[in-house]
Amino acid sequence: MNGSPLVLEPVFFVGPVPITDPVIVTWVLMAVLALGCAILTRRLKLRPSRTQAALELFVTAIDGQLRDIVGGDTAPYRALIGTILVYVLVANWMSIVPGVEPPTAHIETDAALALIVFGATIWFGVRARGAGGYLKTFAEPSWVMIPLNLVEQITRTFSLIVRLFGNVMSGVFVVGIILSLAGLLVPIPLMALELLTGAVQAYIFAVLAAVFIGAAASEGG
Amino acid sequence: MNWIEIVSIFSAALAVSFGAIGPALGEGRAVAAAMDAIARQPDAAGTLSRTLFVGLAMIETMAIYCLVIALLVLFANPFTS
């Protein structure tokens, strides 16, 4: 932790585009996750092996949670929500790897994730109800609510950003401060707490994304 | 040190200290209610504690908002050059 948690120093430049630390970590994570998924799902059998059984358990658990939230068929949402959950979880847990800061500890990554959720909300809403039908949900229960509903769209996206950013960043910050005050090995309990916070925040982010998307896709209908 | 920086530091400390009071009271109430519920129905402890953790994280977010505001005031203050 060097100086402000809100400012990023570019590591190197690709042409005019500055490449910062979270971008590199994000790309490595993406490569590792994609490669891991490809390897793990390469040989799926009807009679599952041990790894496949664990994976199926995980996917079934996500599916069950999703069904509680959106109701009905979960197939359209499973890929998006599952990917968000796994990515945010692994990104939050990057804080235990020495020398790596979690990309979610910088507001740009969280903003990108929340914008994906924002776009997905509109996309699923329009797909389920048509453009006119989706726009009409803003006027429910009456047209007086239109400004409030519009503001709600923006504020809940913003709170999604700040919640994840604040929690992960404050964890990294506190560990950095304790480390500089008390020395080596002292912040280990805090890092363990950070693992718990990271997991809970990833779960909350995914659940809230599912709630927003489910509400847009089924509101009033 | 000019006045803006001095006031910024004090306001950051105030934001964090007062912003922590409300979530602390709220979390205390939430944990107390969850303990009560677990004492009444020990079977539902799993569901209750999972819901409790999510609720606590939601409440804690309020304190985190104050922390973010304090950091903005300290590190990205628009009024200091």
Automatic annotation (TrEMBL), chain A:
Intracellular or extracellular location(s): Cell membrane; Membrane
| Single annotated GO MF | proton-transporting ATP synthase activity, rotational mechanism
Q: Which Gene3D superfamilies match?
A: ATP synthase, F0 complex, subunit A (1.20.120.220)
Instruction: Give the record's keywords alphabetically.
Output: ATP synthesis, Cell membrane, CF(0), Hydrogen ion transport, Ion transport, Membrane, Transmembrane, Transmembrane helix, Transport
Can the keyword Transport be found in this entry's annotation? yes
What GO terms describe the biological role, i.e. biological process, of this protein?
proton motive force-driven plasma membrane ATP synthesis
The highest taxon in the source lineage is: Bacteria
According to the record, the segments passing through the membrane are 23-41, 77-97, 109-126, 164-188, 200-218
In terms of InterPro entries, this protein maps to: ATP_syn_F0_a_bact/chloroplast, ATP_synth_F0_asu, F0_ATP_A_sf
SUPFAM superfamilies referenced in this protein's UniProt entry, alphabetically: F1F0 ATP synthase subunit A (SSF81336)
Question: One GO term of the cellular component aspect?
Answer: plasma membrane
Membrane disposition: Multi-pass membrane protein
Q: Does the keyword rRNA processing apply?
A: no
What function does the entry list? Key component of the proton channel; it plays a direct role in the translocation of protons across the membrane.
| Family according to the record | Belongs to the ATPase A chain family.
The name of this protein is: ATP synthase subunit a
Source organism (scientific name): Rhodobium orientis
Q: What is the lineage of its organism?
A: Bacteria, Pseudomonadati, Pseudomonadota, Alphaproteobacteria, Hyphomicrobiales
From TrEMBL, chain B:
PROSITE patterns, alphabetized: ATPASE_C (PS00605)
The UniProt record lists the V-ATPase proteolipid subunit C-like domain at 10-72
Q: How does it sit in the membrane?
A: Multi-pass membrane protein
Its chief place of residence is: membrane
Q: Which UniProt keywords apply?
A: ATP synthesis, Cell membrane, CF(0), Hydrogen ion transport, Ion transport, Lipid-binding, Membrane, Transmembrane, Transmembrane helix, Transport
Source domain of life: Bacteria
Q: In chain numbering, where does the site feature Reversibly protonated during proton transport fall?
A: 60
Where is it located?
Cell membrane; Membrane
Instruction: Please give the InterPro entries that the UniProt record associates with this protein.
Output: ATP_synth_csu_bac/chlpt, ATP_synth_F0_csu, ATP_synth_F0_csu_DDCD_BS, ATPase_proteolipid_c-like_dom, F/V-ATP_Csub_sf
Q: Which GO terms describe its cellular component?
A: plasma membrane; proton-transporting ATP synthase complex; proton-transporting two-sector ATPase complex, proton-transporting domain
Q: Which residues cross the membrane?
A: 52-76
SUPFAM superfamilies named among the record's database cross-references: F1F0 ATP synthase subunit C
* Homology family: Belongs to the ATPase C chain family.
User: How is this protein named in the record?
Assistant: ATP synthase subunit c
Please name the source species: Rhodobium orientis
